[in-house]
Amino acid sequence: MVQARREAAVGAIDLPMKRLQAASPLMRRLGQSLAILPAYQSATVLADAPPTFTEVGLRYSRYSEDSLDRDKLIFGSVDRYDIDITQLWIEAPVGASWSVALDVQNDYQSGASPWFVGAQADGNPGVIMSGASIQDNRVEVGVTTRYFWADGNAGFAISHSDEDDYDATALSFDASWNSADNSRTWNSSFSSSHDKVQPTQGVIPVFIESDELDTQSAYFGVSQILSKTAVARIGLNYTYSEGYLSDPYKLMDARPNTHERLALSLGYRRFLIDFDASLQADYRYYADSWGTDSHALELGWAQNLSHGLLTPYLRYYTQRQADFFDVIADTSKTYHADDYRLSSYGTFTLGAKWSVALSDQWTLELEAERYETSQSWGLYSGEEAPALVDFWRGTIALIWRFE
Question: Which of 81, 298, 333, 358 lies 20 to 30 A from 283 at CA?
Fold first, then answer.
């Protein structure tokens, strides 16, 4: 399927506020919104030395969406997406100042997806699903090389992903550097991707043969050690996409061919000596040129154990619907969509991560989370989209480190 992940890509750019406000209506609106947020510092401080060992890891994740409620179905299958993700990575030092990493990921997707929303006999909105099961496989390969010096490091990466109906190639560069006293670290990154979509002509009719999308992203952040037990961070992301941004597998979906996004992220970590644990807090504000605003807050507790680290966490997310979203798409508008991902809603995610050292060389990582969503949980008004999704996600990874 066409990569849903492209809508989640968020970059950043370091621009003075006056320049941000002059750039576009989005930037002017953000200038007012961001001015009221506290000016915490950001990004974690990194050691500027190449790894002294080789790391090989294998990770498997399972993503499973709940079935659609039958009272919200007009036609098709109630079954939704299941995705199996397998990832293999290798990172190794090269000489005294370099490292190189290879990452290979395979995603296998199956299930059905909402095609469009219509009116049921009682007048309530209902979902027409894609009916027959959809299957697709995506393979992504990425290579990163990194150079380290006394006060910082820099990396260059190239990746390519391929699936039945979508190809994407991306280049990125990142760098971090420390202050003279090593109490502050600046981080920046820039990336560019070129994507090509070629929808599969199947049971669900599509109306384009091929199209393209270009995306550029930039990020700037800074982290600050506040005390012996606390560090704070702040980061700004900016992304601009131009090209085909509609979903070819949705009947009533016509989106603008540009998408401008900005996100401000804040983070705080505090180690509590008496508990041998750390409190983790992260916040993100996001806004885009389609009229969407969102807030995300995550709280975690990282507890040191005799042979590992256990981190339960709770995340809250809420967003405002896009300007052109309607529960039942209004096709009289130039831009229109009934995609539930563009609606107003709120979500809660409850999860836990557990990392346990099996030996000096082997580490086992486990993670599980539950995601639930409802329009009534959001901070913004709007009618609930009938296709809102709940899901489970589980991950297991085995990591081997050796010199």
Answer: 81
Tokens 């993503």 found at: 63
**CA-CA distance, 155 to 284, in Å (whole number)?**
25
Write out pLDDT tens, residues 269-292: 999 999 999 999 999 999 999 999
Checking if the pLDDT of 259 tops 60, the result is yes
- Under DSSP, the state recorded for 402 is E
Contacts of 247 (CB under 8 A, 6+ apart): 2, 253, 255, 337, 339
Tell me how far apart the alpha carbons of residues 387 and 392 are, in angstroms, rounded to a whole number: 16
Share of the chain above pLDDT 70, in %: 87
pLDDT for 329-343, tens place per residue?
999 999 999 999 999
User: Six-digit token pair at 87?
Assistant: 């990832």
CA distance to 227, 316, 389, per residue, from 371 (Å) = 35, 10, 8
Task: Name the strand (E) or helix (H) holding 32.
Answer: helix 25-34
Ordered domains of the chain (ranges, CATH): 4-402 (2.40.160.40)
Q: What CA–CA distance (Å, rounded) separates 159 from 89?
A: 13
What lies within 8 Å, CB to CB, of 121 at 6+ separation is none
Q: How far apart are CA 156 and CA 381, in angstroms?
A: 43
Cα–Cα distances in Å, from 52 out to 85, 96, 119, 142, 361? 29, 9, 61, 22, 13
Model confidence pLDDT, tens digit, residues 348-400: 999 999 999 999 999 999 999 999 999 999 999 999 999 999 999 999 999 99
- Please give the Cα distance from 348 to 15 (Å, whole number): 33
The Cα–Cα gap between 376 and 349 comes to: 15
Residue with tokens 């993700």: 85
325 DSSP 8-state letter: B
